[in-house]
Amino acid sequence: MRRRHRQQRPVDAVRGFTLIELLVVLLIVGVMVGMASLAVGDNRGEVVEREAQRLVALLRLAQDEATLSGQAVGLHVSHDGYAFLAQQDADTWVPMTGDRALAPHDLPEFVRLDMLVDGEPITPGRTGLSGGDGGDDDPGLSGGGDPGLSDSGSESGADSTDADADNGEQTASSGDDEENPEGKEPHTVIYPSGEIYPFQLDVAGDEPGGRYFRITGEIHGEIALETRD
């Protein structure tokens, strides 16, 4: 008599996951998500630092450009980036689109710029330096070709004071740039002499209380970068 042998299915072939195994998997996934979030946060901090370093390098490049060309170079700050401007005449500034390095630059959406000129905050994209009747060497600032003084601690000479009295004290104007067909006016100016209209510019991320970077431009031409916590 021939016997039939039944083929038994292995027990492990139909075995599912246990509750402990599922919990371990969920724990591993949670840890990986947390590490990814931390990595993104650290990366944003590095991006902010790189943007600050980039802007300092470009300001120094613009300083060299102004000295070599004999033409003033302006910096216009907006809510989403900045642009270096070339002076066409006393009242007209245009973006330096022909220079790849100094062409308008867009910032990442989480990077913000806060600027002070003459001790007053600048509203990005809506204010510029205006006032005073200038010639070809006067980019709309008081005192002719002299960068003038600010409330940030730069010293004033008698000539600059007299020029302010004649031309009217320079102020930061708000509203649209109606006189400039390009719609941009400089918030600070780098002169052919290497001097700079004094300013303070903070580059920061969108995290409150986080580390940020302060760029300062002094009247004698020094451009400095420092880290603030």
How many H/I helical runs? Answer: 2
Provide the number of structural domains. 1
Order of helices and strands: HEEEEEEEHEEEEE
Regions with pLDDT < 50 over 5+ consecutive residues? Answer: 130-179
**Largest beta sheet, briefly?**
5 strands, antiparallel
Helical coverage, percent range: 25-40%
Strand content: 25-35%
Record field, number of beta strands: 12
The name CATH uses for the topology is minor pseudopilin epsh fold
What CATH architecture do you see? 3-Layer(bab) Sandwich
Shape: elongated
How large, in whole angstroms, is the Cα Rg? 29 Å
Explain how this protein is built.
This protein has helices at residues 19-69, 158-167; strands at 73-78, 81-89, 92-95, 105-106, 112-117, 120-122, 127-130, 171-174, 188-190, 199-204, 212-217, 223-228. The N and C termini lie far apart (91 Å). The protein has a single domain (17-228), classed as minor pseudopilin epsh domain (minor pseudopilin epsh fold), CATH 3.55.40.10. The protein contains two helices and twelve strands. The strands form three sheets. Strands 1, 2, 3, 4 and 9 form a five-stranded antiparallel beta sheet that branches. It has a five-stranded antiparallel beta sheet with strand order 6-5-10-11-12, with helices on one face. The longest helix is centred in the first third of the chain and has 51 residues, at 19-69. Helices cover 27% and strands 26% of the residues. The protein has 229 residues and is an alpha+beta fold. It is elongated.
